[in-house]
Every structure is written in C-alpha cells, then in structure tokens.
Design a protein that fits this description.
- It contains eleven helices and twelve strands.
- By secondary structure, the chain is an alpha/beta fold.
- The protein folds into two domains: about 190 residues, Isopropylmalate Dehydrogenase, CATH 3.40.718.10; about 130 residues, Isopropylmalate Dehydrogenase, CATH 3.40.718.
- It starts with a strand and ends with a helix.
- Belongs to the isocitrate and isopropylmalate dehydrogenases family.
- Its EC number is 1.1.1.41.
- This is Isocitrate dehydrogenase (NAD(+)).
Length: about 350
C-alpha cells in the first residue's frame, strides 16, 4: 500500500495536543490495517506568526500544494485589524469550495436528539466571506455579498452526488431569497437546476431563520442541508450543539486539487497544555480524510473504536461529563482498536 504524504498543521492553543492524539491513533490503526503515513508538519496561526512573522508561511502553502491533503488543528486568527481569517484564506487559496460537515450522534452522549444523522454542504469560497469590504467613510463600512452561478452549481452538485452515492433521500436548500432576491435567488435557481438531474432525491427549500427554529424543534426532518457560506457557518455550529458541541463534530474542505480536514472548534487557549482537550472532532475529521484517501478499512476501524469508547463511557473528557484527559482518552481509543 502507498505511503500517504499528509501536511500536518498542529495549530494553536489545544491544537498541538489534539493533533498529537489524533496522529497517535492513526499510526496505531495503520499498523493493524497496513496504512502508512508520512507527516509533513507546518504551522499556521499565532504560533507561526511568532516564529516567522507570517500567519501562513509559504512553506505551508507549498506543502499543501504538493501533498494535496492536510489535517489541521484549530488556529488563532486576530479579531479585527484587517487580517483575513486563516481558515478563509486557506479555502480561497486552494479553492476548497465544498465545506462538508456530517452531524451524527455518538453513543452514550445524552442529548435531546438521540440518533441524529444529517449532513451540511456549505459553499466555502463566496458570499460575504469573499472578504470584499471597504470603508465608505469613517462611519460606514460595506461588505459585498458575492454569489456566482459557478459556485452555486458546484456545491449543489456535491450535495446531490453525495446523496445519490450514500442513499440519502432529501436535500434542503437554505436561503433568504425572500429578502435577497438576486443573490440568494441565483443560488436557489442553481439548486433547482441541479435537483432536476436527481429525480430520486426529494428537493425542498427553507428560509434560513425558519430553518434555525425547525432544527431546534425537529432536526430529524433534515437529511442533507445545502446552503451558502454564511448561513452554513451558523447552521453548522447550531447543529453541532444538537449532538453535544463543537468538540465532537468533524469538518472537511474539499477542492479539485487539494483538501483540508479540520476540527471546527476554536483553539481554547484557556486549557492549552493541561491535558484537558477532547480530540474527537479532529479525530473524526481524520476519519473523513481516510475515506477521502480511500483508506476505508482504517477509517472504519478508528470510527468503531471511537464509538466503543463513547458507548462504554469510562474514559471520556471533561467537556462531555467525564474525568479523563486527552492522553487517557486517546490511549483508550488505541486500546479499542484491538478490542
């Protein structure tokens, strides 16, 4: 089997801890399945800036371009000051147009919505996140919302193709076209065009504010959520809360020439270096990465081991009611690989 060359971005705060835990589990699983990894470590964020004077060093760009796949821990981006989000910058640099976030309940986690299983497809390069902002005068700032036919068609295609491959039955396009009739109207027009090519999949449309209410009242009505960048960001975090929080949910940024898999939570500097962080989000992101690399056996082995640890409930981290640290949790997952 080939050795997979992967750019590893540890990140800031708890990033290095959850990244190290995830790599340990992947390496242990690889010894069982025969999967092999070569990690090329390059950092981004506050730590990288402190060492190099750049939030995203050129060496990181070069590594992702060469390897075409990266695993990224949470990074710290300054708020305000004109610096674009590191995550947004990487997505635009490599045209990672599809933000893919499965939201699936883990066993043993008590929530109001047991056995939830939905997927969010979020357009990842346009909308207000295009970063086209100007100061009209000292009292007025303006942001431009950019929606294109190309961007809308390809994210819709991604959602419907996934639905067809995985036996999903319904796609909801989420919008605010009742107010933004041109921009969101174009997005909806493109979604309808693509939906017509998949007659076996039910297509529906919900306004974004109503969607927030519906998700809280009955999230089981949704199967695949297809939406623009800003709405997708907000809805992704809302849905994470339905199954236990951002510390559990994976994320993937998929493009034609490169893909970056990442934890969707923050860098949590208040608990950095204290062996308290939960690596589940990054680990499940790594499982998505393994599927992307067609290492299905390794991905399934890790997912089953992770779910076994959660089902047993003996070695859980503090954020979900346990007492274990990062190291003990990751050791439990490694042990479960052979259980």
């Amino acid at each position: 089997m080939p050795t997979h060359k992967i750019t590893l971005i540890p990140g800031d705060g708890i990033g290095p801890e959850v990244t190290a835990a995830t790599v340990k589990i992947l390496e242990a699983a690889g010894k069982i399945t025969g999967a092999s990894f070569e990690w090329h470590t390059h950092n981004a964020g506050a730590d990288a800036f402190a060492k190099t004077g750049e939030y995203i060093p050129q060496s990181l760009y070069d590594s992702v371009k060469e390897n075409k796949v990266a695993l990224k821990g949470p990074v710290t981006t300054p708020i305000g000051g004109g610096f674009t989000s590191i995550n947004v910058t990487l997505r635009k640099k490599f045209d990672l147009y599809s933000n893919f976030r499965p939201v699936k309940s883990l066993p043993g986690i008590k929530t109001n919505y047991p056995n939830l299983d939905l997927v969010i497809f979020r357009e990842n390069t346009e909308d207000l996140y295009a970063g086209l902002e100007v100061m009209i005068n000292p009292d007025i700032a303006q942001s431009l919302k950019i929606i294109t036919r190309k961007g809308s068609l390809r994210i819709a295609k991604s959602a419907f193709e996934y639905a067809r491959r995985h036996g999903r039955k319904k796609v909801h396009a989420i919008h605010k076209a009742n107010i933004m009739k041109l921009s969101d109207g174009l997005f909806l027009k493109c979604c309808k065009e693509v939906a017509a090519e998949y007659p076996e999949i039910t297509y529906a449309e919900h306004i974004v504010d109503n969607t927030c209410m519906q998700l809280v009242m009955n999230p089981f009505q949704y199967d695949i959520i297809l939406t623009e960048n800003l709405y997708g960001d907000i809805l992704s975090d809302l849905c994470s809360g339905l199954i236990g929080g951002l510390g559990l949910v994976p994320g993937a940024n998929i493009g034609v020439d490169a893909s970056i898999f990442e934890a969707v939570h923050g860098s949590a500097p208040d608990i950095a270096g204290q062996d308290k962080a939960n690596p589940t989000a990054l680990l499940q992101s790594a499982v998505l990465m393994l599927h992307h690399l067609e290492e299905t056996a390794t991905a399934d082995l890790i997912q089953k081991a992770l779910e076994r640890v959660y089902a047993e409930g003996k070695t859980l981290t503090r954020d979900i009611g346990g007492t274990a640290g990062t190291t003990a949790f990751s050791d439990a997952v490694v042990a479960a690989l052979s259980a």
